[in-house]
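Supplementary notes for students who missed Thursday's class. We covered one full example, reproduced here. Read the sequence, then the structure, then the short commentary at the end.
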Amino acid sequence: MTDAETARMISSRIAAYLTAVHPARPNPDDLAWVIVRALNQSRDRTAALPSDGERPGEQQVLTLPDQDDGARVIVCVGEFDQQTLHPFRAAGLAATADPTIRRVVLDVSRITFADSSMLNEMFRLLRSSRLVLVGPLPHSLARVLELTQAGPLFPTTDSIEAARTL
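Structure (token representation):
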């Protein structure tokens, strides 16, 4: 097995672990988060990561390693409003700029708050590529989607694996 194949297998297992665990506030020392963060840094995707000045656990945007299936998985944790949206915006811009990415999978299950700013970024991603959400949807995001009647525009699945196939 080549190094690339080994890394792909490990990242797939990490993604499955992160999907299964769904912590309300992830432990920043959790080995899976540390590995994903290191993989992101090694692939020059540091724009999608929280800066050292941010408090761990408050907000995180992690881009899981690509699996050569045309999907980019972005995991959002914490609160997202106009003031804290930059890491998510940067991850989305990187995904839409990559010509090999045909689908963006957005795991929103660990978001504790999202407002219309988050919805605007989701619309931008939807215009640029196929966007699939991984839920369950947090209450605040579900409320924004309900108020704007935009819910039907965003297909939602229960797992990252299911979202990759839509």
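Commentary. The longest helix spans residues 3-21. The chain has six helices and five strands. If anything here is unclear, bring it to office hours.
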